[in-house]
Write a structure and sequence with these properties.
The protein has 290 residues and is an alpha+beta fold. Helices cover 20% and strands 26% of the residues. The chain is globular, with a radius of gyration of 18 Å. The structure holds 2-oxoglutaric acid and fe (ii) ion.
């Protein structure tokens, strides 16, 4: 079993992103990959609002609609922007059209509950000095061949804001992730010099979402050459600091890129009521006591 040693802990604190190959056993990878495939196979497009997902401020990405805003305790399907034709119908198979499934998998699907709340995850949270971490925003991101979209550069703490910021991403490769199929990319040490200066929030009346500036500070813009690709084999865990700049390119290759991810936040900090994701129907899952 992989141990989160003090060397790995120090490396994560220094760089803001850390890949731990072999974190999942090959049986665990298989089980999670199969479960992801089962969810895709079960997707019933009938009655779906054809909600696409984009983290960019884009009128095309209907991220503000209720299907998205009420997904924190559900298993919901978000589509690739390029998968819907002018007539509003899918231009490809439903399996290929799904960008991601979220955001309550850690609560509702036993395979993902087991992958999110366990002693290996607890050990990492303890080493990083979380006092009462909460698990939230779990998702499967598929990046299907040729259609899997880019994820623009962002910081996770601007989506899951606490005061002070505390988001931490656990990102599991369920397939080999390479530059060619849109692996993660990050700017090493950017979490140390890039404060959270804008936020993704719900508009008044929960009618939609928007990015709003929260500070006049202009953090340094990274040069595109500063992004490092994180090429990893299936079974790797990548830890993502909430303030580190990261992104991923579109998948132009013939290989899919399935990943599972969830986040934790420090439950003893104030969770902002303007965040898009709210514990509307039940409290967040506590990592240490579940
Ligand atoms: O999987 C990706 O390409 C991006 C995921 C991401 O930004 C995250 O998990 O925080
Ligand atoms: Fe992210």
């Amino acid at each position: 079993m992989i141990v989160f040693t003090s060397e790995l802990c120090d490396q994560f604190k220094r760089d803001g992103c850390l890949a731990i190959p072999g974190f999942l056993t090959s049986d665990e990878v298989k089980e999670m990959r199969n479960e992801a495939q089962r969810l895709l196979d079960e997707f019933d497009i009938e009655g779906h609002p054809m909600t696409t997902f984009a983290t960019e401020e884009s009128p095309k990405g209907h991220v503000g609609d209720q299907y998205f805003l009420e997904s924190e305790d559900k298993v919901r399907y978000f589509l690739e922007e390029g998968a819907i034709g002018p007539d509003g119908r899918l231009t490809m198979s439903k399996e290929h059209a799904v960008n991601k499934i979220g955001h309550g998998l850690h609560d509702l699907i036993p395979v993902f509950a087991k992958a999110s709340v366990n002693d290996r995850v607890r050990a990492i949270a303890r080493a990083l000095e979380y006092k009462d971490p909460m698990v939230l925003q779990s998702m499967l991101i598929f990046k299907q061949p040729k259609i899997g979209g880019a994820v623009p550069c962002h910081q996770d703490s601007s989506f899951l804001y606490t005061d002070p910021p505390s988001a931490l991403g656990f990102w599991f490769a369920l397939e080999d992730c390479k530059t060619t199929n849109g692996c993660l990319e990050f700017v090493s040490r950017s979490h140390l010099i890039t404060p959270i200066t804008s936020r993704f929030v719900v508009k008044e009346g929960r009618t939609g979402t928007e990015f709003v500036p929260i500070s006049d500070v202009k953090p340094p813009e990274p040069d595109p050459s500063e992004f490092k690709a994180i090429e990893v084999p299936a079974g790797t865990l990548v830890l993502i600091h909430g303030s580190v700049l990261h992104r991923s390119a579109p998948n132009l290759s013939d290989s899919s890129r399935y990943i599972y991810t969830f986040h934790i936040i420090e439950g003893t900090y104030k969770y902002d009521e303007r965040n898009w994701l709210q514990p509307r129907t039940k409290p967040f899952t506590r990592l240490y006591t579940e």
